[in-house]
Write a structure and sequence with these properties.
By secondary structure, the protein is mostly beta strands. About 10% of the residues lie in helices and about 35% in strands. The protein has helices at about 5-10, 45-50, and strands at about 20, 30, 30-35, 55-60, 70, 75-80, 85-90, 100-105, 110, 120-125, 130-140, 145, 160-165, 175-180.
Amino acid sequence: MDADPVCYAVNKGNVQSQAIILGDNNTLGNVFVYIKSGLNVDNNVKRVAQIAQEAVVNQAGCNYSPHVIGVMVGQKVKFFNPDGTLHNVHALCKINPEFNIAMPDFRKEMEVTFDKPEFMFPVRCDVHPWMQAWVAVMPHPFFAVTGSDGQFEIKNVPAGTYEIEAWHEKLKSKTMTITVADNSTQHLDFSFSEPK
């Protein structure tokens, strides 16, 4: 890290991997939880996707934040560079067009949109190889990312039966089936095993 004095000064050389973030009682952060199947993606859901607020990915402290993010098709995604050093945003998409855009110290923000659903691709900074984030481009708004406390909430889910998946970059995905009634609340607990 000391190859870039800005990154070194901000972090004092102490950057932890964001791959596995544990909270108290071994709760797990950066888990992407979403409706995998059972949802009728109708025009109302698509309209919600079009009017959603912009998503933000910050490169402050020579790290991506958030580390895992879900956005909807057509949603604006803003990348910020407050660090005063060169970063680049290299999105390694397979379905959407791949891009690699430099963000020198004078370029503080850029905006992109993704036009097609695409599940979990990495975004990297080629200048700083430890910097990586994960992006899921979703056709619906029913997803969330756990905080370090392991908590997540997916609001306004229509009544129905769904397969829910919890995805983690290093641990295997877990799925559950759940039935949601009108005006009801359901609780799900996913458990992940320590990697070998």
